[in-house]
Write a structure and sequence with these properties.
Layout: H1 2-24, H2 31-53, H3 57-60, H4 64-86, H5 91-102, H6 110-118, H7 125-147, H8 153-161, H9 164-178, H10 184-195, H11 197-209, H12 221-246, H13 251-261, H14 267-276, H15 280-305
């Protein structure tokens, strides 16, 4: 189980560095916003392009894809119904909470876990593809319409397809599907820039933790606790049940979809919340709690199915 703790330690160190930077003020008062814009508009698109462009097409469209999709959508729908119908939250806030309930950390946590627990980083590729080509465009379109007042269908479509994260993902999938092999002189500079995304996302997250108290009254504790429960407990069980009984998966494939479903909430959810200044505390606290809680969750999956 040392592999799980190794992946967690990598993330924890970067977050701690960000927290120390926030506490000492070494990056200045505008560091959070600068890092948020840098991650969203520059680094994340390069990272996602390099991950998807070099992924195996067969892995991208494997049987794991529909199971992961259904499990994630179910969690988002449950949160959305509770948030809108019972708690009467706004649509933009509900979108962030729904993402926190089902949008897994398939990159900076999922890739190491896929390597350490499943033996192949390609297992995380279908989840990355699903989230970037379906969940992210829909969520960003809704957030753009509600937060920035985009009402024209053309404006929504245009801003969605020109979103840097969506552009990077689509181009990466295009390269993978067409079988185009990029020469090192092109791919390696892209990968170099992309590799800066993960540590800087985590450092930005650490900055956001300074001076804040988790689950502070009035900041949406119910949202955080519901999203955390759905993400760490309900979603892995749903993925296992769907894979086992609806899709007939067994062995390593069933183990893989369950492991992927037990991953913590993606850092991208916090990046989206920062970008649109919506439910940032909910996203931050859910990312933190699910990251901590994913360790026992993954250990339980490994003991039961590994």
């Amino acid at each position: 189980m040392i592999q799980i703790f190794t992946g967690f330690a990598v993330i924890a160190l970067a977050v701690f560095v960000g927290w120390v930077a926030g506490r000492t003020g070494v990056l200045g008062p505008g560091a959070r916003q600068v890092l948020a814009q840098l991650n969203f508009n520059v680094l994340a698109p390069f990272l996602l392009f390099s991950v998807l462009a070099t992924a195996d097409v067969g892995a991208l469209f494997s049987a794991l894809l529909p199971v992961s999709a259904l499990a994630a959508v179910a969690m988002m729908l449950v949160f959305g119904l509770v948030s809108l119908a019972i708690w009467r939250r706004g649509l933009a806030r509900t979108v962030i909470g729904s993402l926190a309930s089902g949008y897994v950390n398939g990159n900076n946590f999922g890739i190491p876990i896929a390597v350490y627990m499943l033996g192949d980083a390609a297992y995380s590729a279908p989840v990355v593809l699903l989230q970037l080509l379906l969940f992210a465009p829909v969520a960003l379109a809704v957030l753009g319409a509600k937060v920035e007042g985009r009402t024209s269908a053309w404006v929504i479509i245009r801003t969605t397809i020109t979103n840097p994260i969506i552009v990077g993902s689509l181009l990466g999938v295009l390269v993978a599907v067409t079988g185009l092999e990029l020469p090192p002189i092109v791919l390696e500079p892209i990968e170099l820039i992309g590799h800066a995304a993960v540590p800087l996302m985590l450092i930005a997250y650490g900055l956001s933790l300074h001076g804040q108290r988790l689950l502070k009254p009035g900041t949406g504790r119910r949202d955080v606790l519901l999203a955390t429960m759905l993400k760490l407990i309900v979603m892995p069980v749903a993925a296992w049940a769907l894979g086992r009984f609806a899709f007939g998966l067994d062995g390593i494939d069933l183990y893989a979809v369950t492991v992927l479903a037990a991953l913590p909430t993606a850092q991208n959810v916090f990046v989206f919340a920062q970008r649109y200044e919506t439910a940032e505390v909910v996203a931050r606290d859910t990312v933190f709690l699910t990251t901590i809680g994913s360790v026992p969750a993954l250990l339980a999956v490994a003991l039961l199915l590994g």
